[in-house]
Amino acid sequence: MAMIIITTRDLKTVKKTNMLISDIFKQKKPYSAVTVAVENLTSEQFEEDDFSGIPDLVEVIKLQATGPAEAARAIRKKLKYGNVHRQLRALTLLDGLIQNAGARFQRTFADEMLLERLRVCGTSDLSDPLVKDKCKELFRSWAGEYKNTRGLEQIASLYKVFPL
Question: Could you tell me the residue range of the domain that residue 147 belongs to?
């Protein structure tokens, strides 16, 4: 009977190899002009309610199959990790995109992770009061405007997170 002895060094090599193989086969999230545009448009150089730049962002989103999903993810990241200015800008961008990016965007961008992040931003005690107020304003606006719009039913129902 043969005995195989594995040293710590061999084990580390196997782990590294497995990690490399795993990284190769993992599907990375898209990082393209959409993410770059959201990054730029949420910067300090734009006022919180400035809608300039949204038409260009709409065009970039329309050029890519993954555009709506990538925009939603980039906005979600700004809402989660951004400072108050970036969070407010992300909400402004989202509103502008919902209004202007067309039916394809409206049908595909609102994944559960973005919806949950919006709920948290609108209700959490950890959210800045300015962000909570902006969410409340947008949620009520979206409830009235989009309750009968295909693909935006969940966006329209966000206002329900607030007590009456």
Answer: 30-161
